[in-house]
Design a protein that fits this description.
- The structure holds two protein chains of two kinds.
- By secondary structure, chain A is of the alpha+beta class.
- Chain A has six helices and nine strands, in the order E-H-E-E-H-E-E-H-H-E-E-H-E-E-H.
- In chain A, strands 5, 6, 7, 8 and 9 form a five-stranded antiparallel sheet that branches. A four-stranded antiparallel sheet of chain A has the order 2-3-1-4, with helices on both faces.
- Chain A is elongated, with a radius of gyration of 21 Å.
- By secondary structure, chain B is α/β, with parallel strands linked by helices.
- In chain B, helix 1 crosses helix 2, helix 9 packs across helix 14 and helix 16 runs parallel beside helix 23.
- Classes of the chains: A alpha+beta, B alpha/beta.
- At the A-B interface, helix 1, helix 2 and helix 6 of A face loops of B.
- The complex binds thiamine diphosphate (TPP) and magnesium ion.
- Magnesium ion (MG) binds next to helix 19 of chain B.
- The site of thiamine diphosphate has 20 residues of chain B, from helix 17, helix 19 and helix 21.
Chain lengths: ~180, ~575
């Protein structure tokens, strides 16, 4: 089966120690995590993990099922890039002397819709947010101009394009089941 | 009294009692003193079995759980006490056994300081538990116990660890009896899709050569009757995994025997001849499937399971029937058309005959003077009217006992399947005598495995636990020796083993003992063992270089079993 980049979105209770359990699933299936982002979700008390990894469909399905087995995990789902809108942020520290001596450099920055957020005599910091590809492309162009001192990028934040919000649906269904159970 | 403040330790003990716990297997130590102190006041109604090693405690809890269906409880101290239970926790995880392990832990303010006997138990056990939780204050005790029991027992069962800090044992809080039967992030039984039930029934109805694979899930789901109705209605032949052996009586005409590496010829060969393979509560372990590339490729596969993660894990499935097999089997049975499959059923006969001639009869009636493992197992099974609970250790003794015992009642085989833990048998048998005091418990051991937890003879002595120990002594780590013989050119690298005088050992523990070298001695010893009230130690001196046959060599194809080595 063909490998591609999958984005796994996991919603969980806010429970200490869950992160290592989730990442351990990848390790055990010999899958490297490309990026990982953990934060509070829009639902109170619910955490959201966004994890990207390059693997095949068979394996990512196994990951989802294994992750969902963790008691505090509410839901795990995987997406391909065409099913989601995602964004990343990156910072490029560029040498001031190289940067100023090449007019190309600031042109590239403008072209990519990046911003200069800090300037001093030694270096400038360029900030870019956008797609993974644009961020990589900007890095390649600046590198070609020999002016990148440092480069960091965040993990991606992702929103599925689909209209239904499966976690809310899951929580509603579970709440209903709970009330029914109590009535019985 | 209602608002009375009591220690976390006492809250814990009262919580256990409120969850119906009557037996605990444990071993005290510095970080669990307060709990043991609280236990002292309840010792008349909460029976504590003092083992001789914490590995004994966890395996006994497993034996208790496997025999009774109730949660087994194991209570140990921090650090080494806790790490000594790790093997059993992993064993319970892979064999889906509901146990709750409670371990002491250093005080919360000492956590992370490398304090005396501190280990990160939650971190260590997370990958091998269903749930692992650290209790840091007394207010959480009742909740944590309730959650632990619910998680351990519901859905696909498994082990839970509670890491109980010392301060939470000592500090006081009110006790509010708590039960939990709902966790919103945890769905123990997945919803069954109606469509899946219909498709499964339709496929079975068109099958010419169906084969049902029964795993421990049927016993765990208490669905033995439902299975019977299912297979009888459409005359579906059944093969059982090692852990599923007693889900269907051995003498049922549709029971075609055991699957896997040392299973029976018919069901293994016919796995690659069937047109529809129907797996119920089993997980296609490699010891069952052999080489996956050549496993049941011709068949359409239906998989009944409670754990969605088992679907398509090893074998691609055409129809998955998720849910509790006690219900899904009934739903599918309703839609089955009564069928006979007479031709197909007949195909098992020739394989049975071949295996009988080449393997079973020579094993049961050896032409030499040496006792064989198979004849000992069959003789014990017969002497107990096939009603005993069989506990085994790991190795040749395990495979031979499993093959030659016969099963007439549910939950009659307790063996370490997924982990293959030597040393499991003796303590698990102790646990089983507490889980099912009404049944005879026969523990088949190898000379290697017996010595891995031989200290538990002390527990048997003290508890007068009526374990019938049947030592199949071949003076070898026999299973490994067999592989060396077959695959490593007879190079017996560290498998011959010097043995002690087991008669003296049994004597030292006050356990009645008989040694059998001949068939007459064997019959006498078995008769005496069965007639003895309480524990008994039977040492059968068996053939030294015997082999377990038939065999699918490791990585081999299920349909190509070796009948001779
Ligand atoms: C804890 C552990 N260590 C090692 C093994 C590997 N092993 C599997 S069977 C076996 C030999 C068992 O010898 P014995 O207990 O005498 O049983 P026999 O096969 O001779 O019946 C060994 C060493 C194991 N399964 N478990
Ligand atoms: Mg041996």
């Amino acid at each position: 089966m063909e490998n591609k980049l999958y984005t796994l979105i996991v919603h969980s209770e806010n429970f200490a120690g869950l992160l290592s359990q989730v990442t351990a699933v990848f390790t055990r299936l010999q899958i490297n995590i490309e990026s990982l982002n953990v934060s509070a979700s829009s639902i109170e008390g619910v955490h959201k993990y966004t994890i990207t990894a390059c693997t095949d469909r068979n394996n990512i399905e196994k990951v989802v099922k294994q992750v969902e087995k963790k008691i505090e995990v509410l839901q795990a789902q995987f997406f391909t890039d065409d099913e989601i809108y995602s964004h990343e942020i990156a910072l490029y520290k560029v040498s001031m002397s190289e940067f100023e001596s090449q007019s190309e450099a600031s042109k590239v920055v403008r072209q990519y819709n990046a911003h200069i957020v800090e300037v001093n005599p030694v270096f400038a910091i360029v900030e870019k947010n956008g797609s993974s590809e644009d961020i990589s492309a900007l890095y390649r162009e600046l590198s070609a101009l020999n002016c990148v001192l440092q480069f960091v990028r965040s993990g991606r934040v992702t929103i599925p394009k689909s209209c239904i919000e499966p976690v809310s649906q899951y929580l509603n269904d579970r709440a209903k089941e709970h009330t029914n159970k109590k009535k019985k | 009294m209602k608002n009375e403040l009591i220690s976390g330790g006492e809250i814990f003990i009262r919580s256990l009692k409120d969850h119906g716990v009557g037996t605990i297997f444990g071993y005290p130590g510095g970080a669990i003193m307060k709990v043991f102190d609280a236990l002292y006041d309840y010792r008349k109604t909460l029976h504590h079995v003092l083992v001789r090693h914490e590995q004994g405690a966890i395996h006994a809890a497993q034996g208790f759980a496997r025999s009774s269906g109730e949660v087994g409880v194991c209570l140990v101290t921090s650090g080494p006490g806790a790490t000594n239970t790790i093997t059993g926790i992993a064993d319970a995880m892979i064999d889906s056994t509901p146990v709750v392990v409670i371990a002491g832990q250093v005080s919360t303010d000492m956590l992370g300081t490398d304090a005396f006997q501190e280990i990160d138990l939650v971190g260590v056990t997370q990958p091998i538990t269903k749930w692992s939780f650290q209790i840091r204050n007394p207010e959480d005790v009742a909740w944590a116990v309730a959650r632990a029991f619910y998680i351990a027992k519901s859905g696909r069962p498994g082990p839970v660890v509670l890491d109980f800090t010392k301060n939470a044992q000592i500090e006081k809080a009110q006790y509010r009896p708590t039960t939990i039967d709902f966790i919103r992030s945890y769905v123990p039984i997945p919803a069954t899709e109606l469509g899946a039930v219909e498709c499964a029934a339709a496929l079975i109805n068109t099958a010419q050569r169906p084969l049902v694979l029964v795993g421990q899930g049927v016993e765990l789901g208490d669905a033995q009757k439902e299975l019977l109705a299912f297979i009888e209605k459409a005359q579906l032949p059944v093969a059982c995994t090692l852990l599923g052996l007693s889900a269907l009586p051995s003498n049922h005409p549709l029971n075609k025997g055991m699957l896997g590496m040392h299973g029976n010829l018919g069901p293994n060969v016919n796995t690659n001849n069937c047109d529809v393979l129907i797996a119920v509560g089993m997980r296609f372990d490699d010891r069952v499937t052999g080489n996956l590339a050549t496993y049941a490729k011709q068949a359409q596969v239906i998989h009944f399971d409670i754990d969605p993660a088992e679907i398509n894990k090893n074998v691609p499935v055409d129809i998955a029937v998720l849910g509790d097999c006690k219900e899904t089997l009934v739903a599918v049975t309703e839609q089955l058309v009564p069928t006979r499959h007479a031709e197909w059923l007949k195909t098992f006969t020739s394989y049975e005959r071949e295996e009988n001639e080449k393997v079973i009869l020579p094993e049961l009636h050896p032409t030499n003077d040496h006792l064989s493992m198979g004849e000992v197992a069959r003789a014990v099974s017969e002497a107990t009217a096939h009603k005993a609970i069989l506990v085994t250790d790991v190795g040749q003794n395990q495979m031979m006992a499993a093959r030659y015992f016969k099963y007439t009642q549910n939950r009659s085989i307790i063996t370490s399947g997924g982990l293959g833990t030597m040393g499991f048998g003796l303590p698990a048998a102790i646990g089983a005598t507490f889980g099912r005091p009404d049944r005879m418990v026969c523990s088949f051991m190898g000379d290697g495995g017996l010595q891995m937890n031989i200290q538990e003879l002390g527990t048997i002595m003290e508890q007068k636990a009526p374990v019938k120990i049947i030592l199949l002594n071949n003076n070898y780590l026999g299973n490994v020796r067999q592989w060396q013989e077959m695959f490593f050119e007879h190079r017996y690298s560290f498998t011959p083993m010097m043995n002690p005088d087991y008669g003296e050992i049994a004597g030292a523990y006050g356990i009645p003992f008989k040694r059998a070298t001949t068939r007459e001695e064997l019959q006498e010893a078995i008769a005496e063992m069965v007639a003895t009230d309480g524990p008994f130690f039977l040492e059968a001196r068996v053939i030294e270089e015997g082999s377990v046959m038939p065999m699918i060599p490791p990585g081999g194809t299920v349909s190509q079993m070796l009948l001779e080595c």
